[in-house]
Inverse folding.
């Protein structure tokens, strides 16, 4: 006896229409359940046999895929744009669920990939970039439409620049229209920054860009304002390892400022060698005296 069951789900925000067919294509169960994880799993656990489930790609497809994958034998998210038979004849949630179950049984569905989670972050970043880019284009078109509606020429991208914003807002004499432009113009800047951040995240994967480090003075190299207010004029003498660390950090910090010019590089290298020689010479003399 064939124990396969083909389950078609028509997913909506509040409810899911479900149709279950057996191996012969006969409807054995139909129901409408609430779009909640507990209700969905309760329905799946009540079925027996080889369960094969399908539903269309949509807003809740990723969530529903992760929820059902461990509980069924086969899970297929289908592409609604390639299901031509779904748009024929009468349409309703019940009829769509029946058709999905039948198409799954006949293997006439085109799947949409919902595999491992490795590419999900990249997909979400790319999706954010595309969405923000489209929204940015719409807002920019609305801004120029405001000026064109009042016969104000506005070609190019100068109208979106923050430094020219006051100048362009001053060209609108109607207070209500000017107020509308004031709301839209900052939106273009925010959308552009969001698109750049999404693109950078998709390209770099969140890694830091090399070569952008900034040398900061160490905490023990700063005067202590609390001690000064208490009557202490200066910090105590630093320990030997602290003094060496301060010297190395100062040399590195000065070298980072002078990397652009070859002359500055040679001068920095010469000063470092001189400073190192002046430090090592007293140490050698003391060692020679001790040996004598």
């Amino acid at each position: 006896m064939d124990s396969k069951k083909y389950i078609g789900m028509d997913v909506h925000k509040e409810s899911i229409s479900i149709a279950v067919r057996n191996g012969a294509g006969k409807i054995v169960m139909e129901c409408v359940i609430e779009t909640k994880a507990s209700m969905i799993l309760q329905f799946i656990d009540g079925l027996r046999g080889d369960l094969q489930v399908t539903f269309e790609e949509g807003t809740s497809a990723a969530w529903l895929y992760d929820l059902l994958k461990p509980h069924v034998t086969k899970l297929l998210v289908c592409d609604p744009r390639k299901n031509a038979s779904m748009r024929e004849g009468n349409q309703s949630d019940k009829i769509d669920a029946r058709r999905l179950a039948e198409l799954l049984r006949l293997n006439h569905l085109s799947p949409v990939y919902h595999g491992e989670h490795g590419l999900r972050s990249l997909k979400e970043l790319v999706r954010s970039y595309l969405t923000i880019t489209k929204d940015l284009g719409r807002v920019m078109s609305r801004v120029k439409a405001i000026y064109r509606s009042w016969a104000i020429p506005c070609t190019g991208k100068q109208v979106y620049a923050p430094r020219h914003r006051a100048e362009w807002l001053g060209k609108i004499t109607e207070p209500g229209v000017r107020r509308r432009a004031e709301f839209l113009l900052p939106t273009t800047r925010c959308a552009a920054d969001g698109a750049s951040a999404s693109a950078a995240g998709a390209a770099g994967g969140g890694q830091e860009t090399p070569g952008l480090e900034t040398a900061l003075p160490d905490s023990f190299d700063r005067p202590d304002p609390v001690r000064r207010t208490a009557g202490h004029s200066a910090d105590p003498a630093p320990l030997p390892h602290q003094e060496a660390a301060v010297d190395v950090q100062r040399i590195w910090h000065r070298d980072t400022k002078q990397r652009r010019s070859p002359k500055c590089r040679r001068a920095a290298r010469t000063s470092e060698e001189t400073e190192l020689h002046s430090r090592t010479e007293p140490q050698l003399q003391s060692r020679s005296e001790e040996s004598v």
About this structure: The beta strands are 4-11, 15-22, 27-34, 50-56, 74-78.
